[in-house]
Amino acid sequence: MAVQTLGIFALLVFLMLLGLPVAVAMCLTSVVTLVLLGQLDILGVMGQRMYASTTAFPLLAIPFFILAGNLMNTGGMTERIFRFAHSLVGHFKGGLGQVNVLGSMVFAGMSGSALADAMGLGSIEVKAMVKAGYEPRFAAAVSAASATIGPVIPPSIPLVIYGSMSGVSVGALFLGGLVPGLLMGIAMMVTVYIIAVRRNYPRERRATTREVLSALAGGLAAIATPALIMGGILSGVFTPTEASVAACVYALFLGLVVYRELRWSDLPAILWETVTQTAQVMFIVAAAGLFGWLLIYLRVPDALISWLSALSKEPLVVLVIINLILLVLGCFMEGIAIMLLTIPIFMPIIVQLGINPIHFGVLMTLNLMLGLLTPPVGMVLYAMSSIARVPLMILAKELVPFLICLFAVLALITVVPGFVTWLPALVMGTPR
To answer: Does 115 reside within a domain?
Structure first.
């Protein structure tokens, strides 16, 4: 069994090293494995397995959260968020770096996507920081690191996927991500301050009360989006999936009617971009569903449970091992693909050891966000390198202090589950 499992993953890695997209590599690995095992009669159910993996109701939230993020980036909401954050923390040391992090924390409560944050708010932040005298490498590093807050603070596309696959309440997962997301933001702001002091970066003029109120008034409708989403979910007005539709309607209303920066002629391009991004995500979901089914068919999760149980029966030790596995995978695979691939394997272990699945879901999401910042596959790393025109390896080196602070947050929530489980238990009565 061990040799067979290693052979499957070796083939998957080999196909990805050849340059095949991860979804195609997973499909080909599944087909080749079944052919070599002589299970030709099972090949007929491949299409059914791929289709079934994409039909979970919570997955409907993915295209709508992607659309909401695209509407916000085009409709003037990102600029207003940046202006409001600037009025609050611009006067701290490394002011625009602090604005960058705070702006991402606010935007995180709207889109649920790190890439949407990086491509929308990040492009505005980099231009402003470079214009104010910051090195492009530092501006790009802060923007890339702060974008990872997006899928941790609710709403979150990865948490929607985790909830749909594990059967855990998406609303509870959203609440569980709030405190860790805030910890990420605080840790990054401290890191920015330390770097700014060492490099003598400038601070902005302190905004007057009138300027703060003016920025708040101008961006209040945009800033209220997280309250609309989470308030509607917690009050029972709509489900997390329906909340994604509400976010789209609200973003469209703000862009067309309130801010008037969105034109009807912009919608075809926005919708096409959303369709493209959704198709990419759902193809990975379908391929990972097939590959995950193959692993379960071959009883790979059972073998992994036995292996981990032999190493230790302590939940904390097992979580540390899983963290290391996810961090290594994050260097070579796209985050959602890792999640879809490993959830069927890890969930039985989590259940057997009595680990809170809400804790594990947020922990996994934060792990995968670190993968977005590490070469050779980090999507946010590539996006910010392109936007700021900074060579990839220079940007990766500049990100090291931010990776350290994010590792510290990861270690903290691994050791102290209460940072994740306290709020869902308080609001929804879930187990702590």
So the answer is: yes
Domain count, the chain: 1
CB 141 within 8 A of CB 381: no
Residue 176 lies in a domain: yes
Range with lowest mean pLDDT among 29-43, 129-143, 171-185, 337-351: 29-43
Per-residue tokens: 289: 């569903």
- List the Cα angle 124/125/127 in 5-degree steps: 70
Q: Phi and psi (nearest 5°) for 403?
A: -65, -40
Least confident of 16-20, 36-40, 65-69, 340-344: 36-40
Q: How far apart are CA 13 and CA 218, in angstroms?
A: 50
Q: Does a cis peptide bond (omega within 30 degrees of 0) precede residue 376?
A: yes
Within the chain, how many helices (H) and strands (E) appear?
Answer: 23, 0
Are 378 and 372 in contact, with CB atoms under 8 Å apart?
Answer: yes
Query: What is the spatial distance between Cα 307 and Cα 338, in angstroms, rounded to a whole number?
Result: 20
**Residue ranges making up the domain that contains 160:** 58-428
- Report the distance separating Cα 313 and Cα 328, nearest Å: 22
Q: How far apart are CA 40 and CA 46, in angstroms?
A: 11
Q: How many residues does the chain have?
A: 432
Handedness of CA 306, 312, 315, 318 (dihedral sign): negative
Nearest to 340 by CA among 299, 296, 378: 296
Residue 340 near residue 284 (C-beta atoms within 8 A): yes
In a domain, 14, yes or no: no
CA distances from 128 to 124, 133, 343 (A): 6, 9, 40
Tell me the pLDDT of the chain averaged across its residues.
81
Residue 201 identity? Y
- List pLDDT tens digits, range 144-203: 898 888 888 887 888 888 988 888 888 899 899 999 999 999 999 999 999 988 888 877
In a domain, 368, yes or no: yes
Confirm if 390 and 129 have CB atoms less than 8 A apart.
no
Q: Which residue has the tokens 């999401």?
A: 365
Q: Is the pTM of this model over 0.85?
A: no
The structure tokens listed for 432 are 């702590």
- Full DSSP string of 341-358: HHHHHHHHHHHHHT--HH
Listed residue (133, 265, 252, 152) closest to 202, CA to CA: 133
